[in-house]
Amino acid sequence: MQAGKPFEIVLYGRKNCHLCEQVEQSIRLLEMEFPLRLTVVDIEEDDALHEQYMLVIPVVEIDGQEAFRSVTSVVTWEELRAELVRRLQ
User: Fold this and answer.
1) pTM for this one?
2) Which residues of the chain have pLDDT under 50?
């Protein structure tokens, strides 16, 4: 990855999802350290996305690759940061 090129991060979730809000806050904190662009997608506005992700949100996609699915646990700030650091190397 080129220096300064922002990570493209997509957060799939839904309104009134406490866990989704926590992950969004974690990503926004990482904006201070890493160049990134965050897009938040409400899965309830797209039937296909709703069907695909309804049981596993929040889902984090980084640069077009699904990086985290919240099946057994929700991704933490530390895990998100470690993944971005790994992708910089």
Assistant:
1) 0.90
2) 1-2
